[in-house]
Amino acid sequence: MQPKELLALAEEFGNPLYVYDAATIENQYNRLTSAFSKVEKLRVNYAMKALSNISILKLLKNLGSGLDTVSIQEVQLGLHAGFSPEKIIFTPNGVSFEEIEEVAKLGVQINIDNLSILEHFGAKHPTVPVCIRINPHVMAGGNANISVGHIDSKFGISVHQLPHILRIVENTKMHINGIHMHTGSDILDIEVFLYAAEILFDAAKNFKDLDFLDFGSGFKVPYKKDDIETNIEELGKKLSKRFLAFEKEYGRELTLAFEPGKFLVSQAGYFLAKVNVVKQTTSTVFAGIDSGFNHLIRPMLYGSQHTIENISNPKGKERFYTVVGYICETDTFANNRRISEIKEGDILSFKNAGAYCFSMASNYNSRFKPAEVLWKDGKGHLISKRETFEDLIKNQILVEV
């Protein structure tokens, strides 16, 4: 999107503001499906924890996507957005058995990553199809907080515990229809991903009635100029060839599934905030904005870098700024970053704000959550309102003491 378009949206809808470009989401979805066009049965399940606004869900549904969910509330949102139960997979971690049963009643594909839950569910519901999440013990992610396939991860059943899985399946006579893995976000080396895929292929040989193999996702997107990203075209070429060969070896047609979240929506997102103050100290020039990590926590939580542009002065002389928020503790978006000269009242745009940004926003410091806008066909559509004071107190109960 162009600075003038973003500025117009900030003027129309106020700040801070999240903006999502529908065309970018569509392009990323088509790029992924094109990379695996040789696979007859391809399934893309959007990992909705990245961004769960129902307008975004409907957009992806219309493109042909399914959903990857991690809570019963996400399942309910997916159904509300029009997804059929068979297009939704539920991959929880550490949730109650009752929640898994409740989701199963809705007809959603269950994915289990715990031996005790697997045995309990199989004994009680042997006819309900179940997918099993395997931990391949492969470190394919970037930051340790988003790498989930390593040996110390809480996610998945260790591939070394496969004999235990097989014993449970045999004893309960449960129906295993899928095998799943997820190594983590920000995959840098597709060869590591392909190595993990071989572990999944080997595990799959132990189950005779599979319908699908789910390879998770974690594809890296660029966060700055010349940044490394997952070569999705090369991965598509190599994994498709190996998958088709495995299908012949397995003896039946299978669905190849992925669960991209960040890959589909990250680059579509922009976060717009107004500069409240420009503050010169003895060694630093701070640009303080009308937002904080209550709206965009990733830089503080993961050390993630979001390209920041001064869209009010996009061609101005660059100076060094430390961009900070208004939260009453350390609240830094960028340290000593080159940005076009900033003055109070300017609008800054944070790129790659489509994934794990609004979805992780909070009301810390009793601040309102921002509005969200979908940019489609040259027009901004409000898809969630800015919160108000009434939203802050609507669930609170005043007790006279």
From TrEMBL:
Family annotation (SUPFAM superfamilies): Alanine racemase C-terminal domain-like (SSF50621), PLP-binding barrel (SSF51419)
Residue ranges annotated for the Orn/DAP/Arg decarboxylase 2 C-terminal domain, each copy included: 18-354
PROSITE patterns (UniProt xref): ODR_DC_2_1
Entry GO MF terms: diaminopimelate decarboxylase activity; pyridoxal phosphate binding
Stored CDD domains: PLPDE_III_DapDC (cd06828)
Cofactor(s) essential for the protein: pyridoxal 5'-phosphate
Reaction(s) this enzyme catalyzes, per UniProt: meso-2,6-diaminopimelate + H(+) = L-lysine + CO2
Residues holding substrate: 298, 302, 329, 356
EC number: 4.1.1.20
Cited InterPro entries: Ala_racemase/Decarboxylase_C (IPR009006), DAP_deCOOHase_LysA (IPR002986), De-COase2_C (IPR022643), De-COase2_N (IPR022644), De-COase2_pyr-phos_BS (IPR022653), Orn/DAP/Arg_de-COase (IPR000183), PLP-binding_barrel (IPR029066)
Keyword set includes Ribonucleoprotein: no
Residues that bear N6-(pyridoxal phosphate)lysine: 49
Function: Specifically catalyzes the decarboxylation of meso-diaminopimelate (meso-DAP) to L-lysine.
Record text on subunit structure and interactions: Homodimer.
Family from the record: Belongs to the Orn/Lys/Arg decarboxylase class-II family. LysA subfamily.
Protein name (Swiss-Prot/TrEMBL): Diaminopimelate decarboxylase
